[in-house]
């Protein structure tokens, strides 16, 4: 394909996407609320992202040779068997990260997950595999899960490839999502369970915070724009409680609320020590208890489904978030 033909091909694709955007907008105007409208809004945002990407290629004078080179690189990556090779990941050592480093790593690792009836959080364990809670995606259809973040810069569809048998409170509650292609994300390493009073950070998209962020509403309505920023809440591990069914619950003080489900609880070295899952409220004691499923339980789930991931065995030496 000549450069001239490639240029016209991209122009045609941009034109076609623009037409689809107009049709999608027209059909969405008939219903502005509910799961169907949410799905149309996310599709619209995804189409806008692709249109803008192709327009940028045209403006940059991208040639057919550039496209072929990108295709060879993509195919070479996809040829790697899921269980082989080394997972690109942030460091697994026990060295604490500065607040700036930790923020950057979590921004590149954590994603907002939107399904048919709910939104939650998740994080990359490889450049194309995302961990979340099963209860975040259990009501979604085959094509009903979307992920985004400010680092990704676009809305992407994801496929649910594995879940735990149940999402009952106190049981393993995990799901594994796969993107259609690897992305430039920061996969997180899985660490050993954290000890009591170990400093931790909960990362995700809590509903109490998201309800005042217009960027989420814009995405759901298909208006595009930036995704909400990842919300980071520091705290400490209070205790780890083994349950009769073998599950270990990590109780901590890093503030979470509905919407944090599936997001990581990390130590100061940016390694996952738990997956935030539920909150217990007591009217009798006027308090809340915040729970994460342990990193050990997550590792068991990932191994059972043949997912490769990075493990960290060194103790994180950080004692406080400064």
Q: Provide a count of the helices.
A: 8
Order of helices and strands: HHHHEEEHEEEEEHHEEEEEHE
The helix/strand class is: alpha+beta
Largest sheet, in brief, is:
6 strands, antiparallel, barrel
The domain count comes to 2
- Can you list the strand order of the major beta sheet? 1-2-3-6-5-4
Explain what this protein looks like in three dimensions:
The chain is α+β, with helices and mostly antiparallel strands and 322 residues long. It has two domains: 3-78; 99-312, Thrombin, subunit H (Beta Barrel). It has eight helices and 14 strands. It has helices at residues 3-28, 35-59, 64-78, 99-109, 134-137, 207-210, 214-220, 295-304; strands at 110-114, 119-124, 129-132, 145-148, 156-163, 175-179, 190-191, 199-204, 231-242, 248-252, 264-267, 272-282, 287-294, 311-312. The protein has a six-stranded antiparallel beta barrel. β11 and β12 (272-282) form a beta hairpin. α1 runs antiparallel to α2. The radius of gyration is 21 Å and the shape is globular.
Give a topology summary:
Blueprint: H1 3-28, H2 35-59, H3 64-78, H4 99-109, E1 110-114, E2 119-124, E3 129-132, H5 134-137, E4 145-148, E5 156-163, E6 175-179, E7 190-191, E8 199-204, H6 207-210, H7 214-220, E9 231-242, E10 248-252, E11 264-267, E12 272-282, E13 287-294, H8 295-304, E14 311-312
Parallel strand pairs: 7-14
Antiparallel strand pairs: 1-2, 1-4, 2-3, 3-6, 4-5, 5-6, 8-9, 8-11, 9-10, 10-13, 11-12, 12-13
């Amino acid at each position: 394909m000549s450069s001239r033909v490639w240029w016209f091909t991209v122009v045609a694709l941009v034109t076609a996407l623009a037409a689809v955007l107009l049709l999608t907008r027209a059909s969405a105007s008939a219903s502005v609320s509910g799961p169907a409208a949410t799905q149309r809004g996310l599709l619209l945002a995804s189409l806008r992202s692709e249109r803008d990407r192709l327009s940028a290629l045209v403006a940059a004078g991208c040639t057919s040779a550039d496209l072929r080179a990108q295709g060879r690189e993509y195919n070479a990556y996809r040829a790697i068997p899921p269980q082989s090779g080394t997972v690109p990941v942030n460091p697994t050592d026990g060295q604490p990260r500065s607040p700036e480093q930790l923020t950057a790593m979590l921004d590149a690792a954590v994603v907002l997950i939107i399904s048919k009836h709910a939104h939650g959080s998740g994080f990359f364990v490889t450049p194309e595999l995302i961990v979340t809670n099963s209860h975040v995606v259990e009501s979604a259809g085959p094509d009903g899960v979307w992920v985004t973040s400010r680092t990704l810069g676009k809305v992407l569809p994801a496929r649910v490839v594995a879940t735990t048998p149940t999402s009952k409170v106190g049981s393993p509650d995990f799901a594994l999502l796969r993107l259609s292609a690897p992305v430039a994300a920061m996969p997180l390493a899985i660490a050993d369970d954290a000890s009591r009073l170990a400093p931790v950070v909960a990362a995700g998209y809590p509903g109490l915070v998201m309800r005042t962020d217009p960027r989420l509403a814009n995405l759901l309505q298909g208006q595009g724009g930036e995704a909400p920023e990842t919300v980071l809440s520091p705290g400490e591990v209070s205790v780890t409680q083994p349950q009769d069914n073998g599950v270990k619950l990590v109780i901590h003080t890093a503030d979470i609320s509905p919407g944090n489900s599936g997001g990581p609880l990390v130590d100061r070295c940016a390694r996952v020590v738990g997956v935030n899952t539920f909150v217990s409220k007591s009217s009798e004691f006027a308090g809340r208890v915040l729970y994460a499923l342990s990193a050990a339980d997550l590792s068991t789930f990932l191994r059972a489904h043949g997912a490769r991931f990075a493990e960290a065995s060194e103790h994180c030496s950080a004692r406080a978030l400064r």
